[in-house]
Amino acid sequence: MTVRLEDATGNPARDINNNLVPNATTGTNGQYQFTNLRPGVVYVVNFIAPNGFTTTSKDSGSADDKDSDASPSTGKSQQVTLSSGENNPTIDAGYYSRASLGDFVWHDLNANGVQEAGEPGIGGVTVRLFNSSGVQEAFTLTGPNGMYSFTNLTPGSYTVKFDTPNNYIPTPKDRNGDDTKDSDANPTNGLSPVVNIAGGDNVTTIDAGYYRLAQIGNFVWEDRNAKGVQDAFEPGVAGVTVTLMGTDAFGTPVSRTTTTDATGFYQFTNLVPGSYTVTFTKPGEAYKASPRCRNR
User: Fold this and answer.
1) Which of 225, 222, 227, 216 is nearest to 238 (CA)?
2) What is the end-to-end Cα distance of the chain in Å, rounded?
């Protein structure tokens, strides 16, 4: 990077021989030096920030040889006056690069907490970014593909909060040990773990999954012509016992029973995605089982 030496008025500085002091370029180790300077003259060091970097805080440390002396607004140091023979190696400047954070909010179709092929993103979800003090710094909405991003961030510690979209339920957190494929949102409050990002980082692993409750059901009918097809003139059968058995995505056994209504309709609602079997108890002797349905 380029470093300029100026006088107290902001003009290019002159050395002890009254020659203009040429700009310095920092070496590979970041060091620079101006020599052959006049004692008793006020100098100011002007650091020209390199592309993609931001000046860090000034005078943050107690040791002047370890902190940054460059003003974040001007890039200039404080005024420095040298005595005869003095070497002042404490005029430093620190810079950081901005960071970014984000990734994906998806519809976890099987509620297993893992992003899998074919599971779509959820658009329009509000995602909030909080700093280490718990203050909200920004918010955004996921795009149509479920992606979101926070950019131009100062290095530090952040927490992401996902607002649960309408008619969805948070999927389990940290299910498979692959941080690029699991959900990081706490199902209770939508918060991610604390994310520590350094300058230049692009963290793309902070995800959230959601699923919807499912339902299953249909119709028990009197198959008057015994051909296994529901014809328009064939009525439903009321009062038939229907049993749902299975295991949901969380490994919880499910057992429910209902009966068909007056039209022959039945339905099981609010089901967590999983594997289920429906069993029909044959109605009274007036009915026999229809051939297996050929068009359903």
Assistant:
1) 222
2) 73
Q: Three-state DSSP class for 150? A: strand
| Pair of tokens at residue 278 | 């429906």
Residue 111 contacts residue 250 (beta carbons within 8 Å) = yes
Contact 198, 99 (CB under 8 A): yes
CB 237 within 8 A of CB 287: yes
User: What is the distance between the alpha carbons of residues 120 and 163, in angstroms, rounded to a whole number?
Assistant: 18
> Each residue of 99-150: pLDDT tens digit?
999 999 999 999 999 999 999 999 999 999 999 999 999 999 999 999 999 9
Are residues 203 and 102 part of one domain? yes
| CATH code of the domain containing 276 | 2.60.40.10
Q: Is 131 inside any structural domain?
A: yes
Same domain, 27 and 75: yes
